[in-house]
TrEMBL record:
<dbReference type="InterPro" id="IPR015422">
    <property type="entry name" value="PyrdxlP-dep_Trfase_small"/>
</dbReference>
<dbReference type="InterPro" id="IPR015424">
    <property type="entry name" value="PyrdxlP-dep_Trfase"/>
</dbReference>
<dbReference type="InterPro" id="IPR006233">
    <property type="entry name" value="Cys_b_lyase_bac"/>
</dbReference>
<protein>
    <submittedName>
        <fullName>Cystathionine beta-lyase</fullName>
    </submittedName>
</protein>
<dbReference type="InterPro" id="IPR000277">
    <property type="entry name" value="Cys/Met-Metab_PyrdxlP-dep_enz"/>
</dbReference>
<keyword id="KW-0456">Lyase</keyword>
<comment type="similarity">
    <text>Belongs to the trans-sulfuration enzymes family.</text>
</comment>
<keyword id="KW-0663">Pyridoxal phosphate</keyword>
<feature type="region of interest" description="Disordered">
    <location>
        <begin position="1"/>
        <end position="40"/>
    </location>
</feature>
<dbReference type="InterPro" id="IPR015421">
    <property type="entry name" value="PyrdxlP-dep_Trfase_major"/>
</dbReference>
<dbReference type="Pfam" id="PF01053">
    <property type="entry name" value="Cys_Met_Meta_PP"/>
</dbReference>
Length: 402
């Protein structure tokens, strides 16, 4: 008989503070009769009654590029979530990484980052910044803090942190890195998409710039692209605000409205998906076809101690290292699944699976894994159904190997 998977969620993941605050801002009094959600204002230009009013800043924005109601409310709410002095919206999660780097780096500077960085961010470092005289040094994924700090040179201007890192989910000691970098005058930018501003608060741990792909859990419905950039220090913020002004990047009012709607229910979705992810990960971990689960939230997994110390929750995204196999077996497993979509982005309501072995070859130090690497995103479906689906996937895997 199949063992019934038990939900097992750390107590801290039921923290209600963010959950209440993200909703309470909508019902705050003193703003008169109004809809709960702000209007979607589609506007390039805003009209004025008099020529004098055109230069009166107290009347709000005069141009759509200054952000209208939904974007302003979303920015305020992201500031609240991130504990930030200011937050900006950009057209993708990738742009949330590239804008602070553009703003804070100059010709001759060097960036230090993980070998397991999100691929398109790595491409930006190589192609765009490399062509402009800004070099990149890599540290091994999941390196010890001292080894990372030893790689800092006179030219290191910025440490780009991604923890857990892409595809292989290595954790870093972010509080220690942030403190040591600040003491040495090295700026820190963290791609915090996995924690979604909820399970980990980079600014509270001394990171200078916290970025995330709003595309993922905040939007939550796989229907838009957006990124956010949050800072605690207004001086760092000024460089970012001016860069955005210079580049002319803003998000559409419709997307801002959808992302704001997503943000209201982020904690509930995130918590529920983590609960299901943990059940699925526990079940997979006990299977003979699986060699290792790459998921810091799982006791015994790499990075679990750091996660348990610093995180108040977990994303529903993790890696599955199969025992041996090849591409054909991985594809057979994926083909047999009926509930997991075959798709790359994550953080939406739907479960997804990708085959990632091929992506690892671009690393300087490709990890030595026991077999094929799959990545699972667990959505809001009933986890028992997902497990039954994976059972068929594993049967197809075994058949492909025999
Ligand atoms: C860690 C991480 N950062 C940033 C991004 C980029 O987000 P977007 O798809 O909105 O550009 C992704 C997308 O997969 C990601 O996984």
């Amino acid at each position: 008989m199949k063992a019934e998977p038990q939900p097992s969620v750390p107590a801290r993941m039921t923290d209600r503070t963010d959950r209440t605050r993200l909703i309470a801002s909508a019902t705050r009094r003193g703003k008169g009769r109004r809809p709960v959600a702000p209007p979607i204002e589609r506007a390039s230009t805003l009209l004025n009654d008099t020529p004098g009013a055109m230069r009166d800043d107290s009347q709000g924005p005069v141009y759509g590029i200054e952000d209208l109601s939904a974007a302003r409310e979303l920015r305020d709410l992201l500031c609240d979530l991130e504990g930030a002095a200011d937050a900006w919206l950009v057209p993708s999660g990738l742009a949330a990484v590239t804008v602070p780097l553009t703003a804070l780096l100059r010709h001759g500077d060097e960036v230090l980052t993980t070998d397991a960085l999100y691929g398109p961010s790595r491409r930006f470092l190589r192609r765009h910044l490399g062509a402009r005289g800004i070099t990149t040094a890599f540290h091994a994924a999941g390196a010890a803090t001292d080894d990372i700090l030893a790689a800092i040179t006179d030219r290191t201007r910025l440490l780009l942190i991604e923890s857990p890192a892409s595809l292989t989910f290595e954790m870093l000691d972010v509080p220690a890195l942030a403190a040591a970098c600040r003491a040495r005058g090295v700026l820190t930018v963290m791609d915090n998409t996995w924690a979604s501003g909820l399970a980990f608060k980079p600014l509270a741990f001394g990171v200078d710039v916290s970025v995330q792909a709003v595309t993922k859990y905040v939007a939550g419905h796989s229907d838009l692209l957006m990124g956010s950039i949050a800072v605690a220090d207004p001086k760092v913020g000024r460089a970012i605000a001016e860069t955005l002004e210079d580049l002319g990047w803003r998000v559409s009012p419709d997307d801002a409205w959808l992302a704001l709607r997503g943000l209201r229910t982020l904690p509930l979705r995130y918590l529920e998906q983590a609960r299901s992810a943990r059940m699925v990960a526990d079940w997979l971990n006990a299977r003979p076809e699986v060699a290792e689960i790459l998921y810091p939230a799982l006791p015994g997994a790499a990075g679990h101690d750091l996660w348990a110390r610093d995180y108040a929750g977990a994303a529903s995204l993790f890696g599955v290292v199969m025992r041996g196999g090849g591409e054909a077996a991985a594809h057979a497993l994926m083909t047999a699944l009926k509930l997991f979509g075959l798709g790359y982005s994550w953080g939406g309501f739907e479960s997804l699976i990708t085959h990632e072995t091929g992506q690892l070859s671009g690393r300087r130090w490709p990890p030595v894994l026991a077999g094929q690497l799959l990545r699972l995103h667990v959505g809001l479906e009933d986890p028992h159904d997902l497990i039954a689906d994976l059972e068929s996937g594993l049967a197809a895997w075994r058949a492909a190997l025999s």
